[in-house]
Amino acid sequence: xxxxxxxxxxxxxxxxxxxxxxxxxxxxxxxxxxxxxxxxxxxxxxxxxxxxxxxxxxxxxxxxxxxxxxxxxxxxxxxxxxxxxxxxxxxxxxxxxxxxxxxxxxxxxxxxxxxxxxxxxxxxxxxxxxxxxxxxxxxxxxxxxxxxxxxxxxxxxxxxxxxxxxxxxxxxxxxxxxxxxxxxxxxxxxxxxxxxxxxxxxxxxxxxxxxxxxxxxxxxxxxxxxxxxxxxxxxxxxxxxxxxxxxxxxxxxxxxxxxxxxxxxxxxxxxxxxxxxxxxxxxxxxxxxxxxxxxxxxxxxxxxxxxxxxxxxxxxxxxxxxxx
Length: 324
Ligand code: SF4
Fold this sequence. Notes:
Elements: E1 7-11, H1 29-34, E2 39-43, H2 45-48, E3 59-63, E4 68-73, E5 78-79, H3 81-93, E6 100-103, E7 115-118, E8 125-130, H4 133-141, E9 146-149, H5 156-178, H6 181-190, H7 192-198, H8 200-211, H9 218-232, H10 239-250, H11 259-273, H12 280-292, H13 296-299
Parallel strand pairs: 1-2, 1-6, 3-7, 6-9
Antiparallel strand pairs: 3-4, 4-5, 7-8
Helix pairs in contact: 3-4, 6-8, 7-8, 7-10, 8-9
The site of iron/sulfur cluster has 12 residues, from helix 2.
């Protein structure tokens, strides 16, 4: 299977430069591996607005009276909000497209979740619900892109979701250029089981749009499809719906398998349900049967191969995968 190479904007301190405020660099094995299969565009917004390395920390401060969020360096009392806003806007709008973002967690510039918000320069934490200024701008300009932090990508369920969304949307971006109905039909067919795992109702909606019984213009069909497609990836699929899809695919082989093989599969699905193995394990088993029984329809299914196989992690026991 040939995959489109997605473009990802990534925090530069995640393996590309020692630009963290303390002078650190964070080397992460998964990001290293990912670099072979995506186009990374590293950026350090704090360096870009003229801060050096090492540098005094900066923080998000909420002005009580105006309810405004400011980016302040307490040591110098410098207000960096405008510089950061201007840089972020200019940088992010330079691209034709961005498929995803990987942000450094806990950063008042890059963090996309749970960032400390202070009430003043003297250290009172108001809440931990803030978003870094650069990350906020990225989410405003690219609200449907795949977004994660390096920390959350340790969770294999979140990582699978991030990669599935990233590669599926990047592939759609490619077929959208030509806007041909036959490409859309092929795309929809290939992703049927993946979409079923995410949302059965939206899968049906996408099916109706693709069937185009009202003979809409191709351009309109594509834009209706894109809107629903983006909605399907709003959150990771539930365990229940993934098990439903595993069962559907298993149904293709049920009559061909021995009693022991059936038991083996059911045991693995139960282990997956109990969070003892990750999804790659039952999928691996199904893939072996797909090859053995040569079911070409399933070979093409993205649920079985949602992203390059080198990025599949079989090693994790699944115990760190929170049920979200
Ligand atoms: S978190 Fe963002 S701003 Fe901070 S060092 Fe890393 S890339 Fe630069």
